[in-house]
Design goal:
423 residues, single chain, alpha/beta
């Protein structure tokens, strides 16, 4: 791997702390991913992306900015990538999924807060994540109270723009979200110095839809039995989609899909046929949060679908491509993004329907409901999901865990007992 230390130094990375972060990732990745006995060959590209996680893409961003380009860091699937792309900007997903950043976040945030928020803010304030330091603007949103207040703290360390997401889905809420997208468009134009035209936005919508479609294709292949790709690998692919170059990601994921589709035709899988099939639902799993998937898939089951923001919520529902005016395109964006069934909405019966539909489509044997501590919206919503699953005769297990390793044994014992029950 090339030496990126001079690049990191130029960005203002705290090299001493960053070395500690970089030292931990290879062992975690080897234990979680490279220890798998059977893997599609096309996963080698995604191995490279992780090996170069703070290198190659950071260099690409630096080169882009050196030429006058602008980079936008985002934390949520509600921020419309299409607007950024249409203004010739680059959008980068920034959610933090590492325990390494949590203590840094707790220096400026309460301890009794979601670890994803603490890790995200900690990554920025500690200057150990070069993605944060490569951004010209960080784009937040109002999906939970913790985030809403965290952006106020984060603004002390970096420029932040916040989109106000409605908490209901009435016609007037769609209209309000449309106005928020317009305001965001104006801000992106201001930062980039580029005008968003209907032609440019049409191209951006098409590109982003293609990224969604290739992820849909990946998930479709996971319906096979035996399943031709592990849940861990599929999770990694969707995590990388948030920050990889879109064109390259589409090409490499297309290669992966072609390979695993051929495996499915041959009846070849990464787990034996009949292995208990699990749907994971709940809070998002930001890279490198692979904890729950690894426990499930080393306990006798396979994850075949994720109803999460790093799963189906990210790519389901395409933006209609028929609108020819900017006004019509923004309306299409607003309608599409408000189809996402985040737990921040009330009522949110659509998410229950999604879980039941996905459980049927992927022929799952059980559901694991994943919740990060202090993520109140998903924790409260568990009751409604549990009731619907029980009525449908689908076993469900709720797991609340953070990024740390202290509870690994306890989580594994509960998961193993659940899988044994399914068998």
């Amino acid at each position: 791997m090339p030496d990126y230390r001079e690049l990191w130094k130029t960005l203002g990375v705290d090299l001493e702390k960053h070395d500690l972060l970089c030292a931990a990732l290879p062992g975690l990745y080897e234990n979680t991913y490279l220890s798998q006995n059977v893997r599609p060959e096309a996963m080698n590209y995604f191995n490279l992306v992780v090996a170069e996680i703070h290198g190659l893409r950071i260099q690409e961003l630096a080169d882009y900015r050196a030429g006058g380009g602008k980079v936008f860091g985002t934390f949520c699937v509600f921020v419309p990538d299409e607007i950024i792309l249409a203004a010739k900007g680059i959008g980068i997903g920034l959610c933090g999924g590492s325990q390494f950043w949590v203590p840094e976040g707790e220096k400026v945030l309460p301890r009794a807060l979601c670890p994803l928020i603490k890790a995200s803010v900690g990554a920025a304030v500690s200057r150990t994540c070069p993605y944060f330091l490569s951004c010209d603007l960080l784009v937040g949103e109002t999906t939970c109270d913790g985030k809403k207040k965290a952006w106020e703290i984060l603004e002390e360390f970096a420029p932040v723009y916040v989109m106000n997401l409605p908490q209901m889905k009435r016609d007037k809420d769609v209209a309000d979200w449309k106005e928020e997208i317009k305001a965001f468009l104006n801000k992106v134009e201001e930062i980039t110095g580029n005008k968003v035209t209907a032609e440019a936005l049409a191209r951006a919508i098409q590109l982003t839809n293609r990224r969604r479609q290739v992820l849909m294709r990946l998930y479709e292949a996971r319906k096979a039995d035996p399943v031709p790709i592990s849940g861990k690998d599929a999770l990694l692919v969707s995590q990388i989609a948030f920050y990889d170059d879109p064109q390259r990601f589409i090409a490499k994921t297309t290669e992966l899909c072609a390979e695993i589709e051929e495996w499915a035709r041959q009846g070849k899988g990464v787990f034996p046929a009949g292995t208990p099939r699990i749907l994971v639902t709940g809070t998002p799993m930001a890279i490198p949060n692979w904890k729950l998937h690894h426990i499930i898939e080393t306990s006798g089951a396979v994850v075949v679908c994720e109803e999460t923001c790093t799963g189906t919520r990210y790519f389901e529902h395409l933006v209609p491509e028929g609108a020819s005016t900017l006004e019509g395109q923004i309306e299409s964006l607003a309608e599409r993004y408000l189809k996402i069934n985040c737990a921040c909405f009330t009522p949110n019966t659509g998410r229950v329907k999604d879980i039941l539909r996905l459980a049927s489509e992927f022929r799952v044997d059980g559901v694991v409901y994943y919740n990060l501590p202090f993520c109140h919206t998903y924790n409260v919503e568990y009751r409604m999901v549990e009731k619907a699953l029980k009525e449908a005769g689908i076993p469900v297990l709720q797991i609340e865990t953070d990024y740390g390793e202290e509870d690994l044994g306890q989580v594994r014992n509960r998961v193993e007992a659940f899988i044994e029950m399914l068998k």
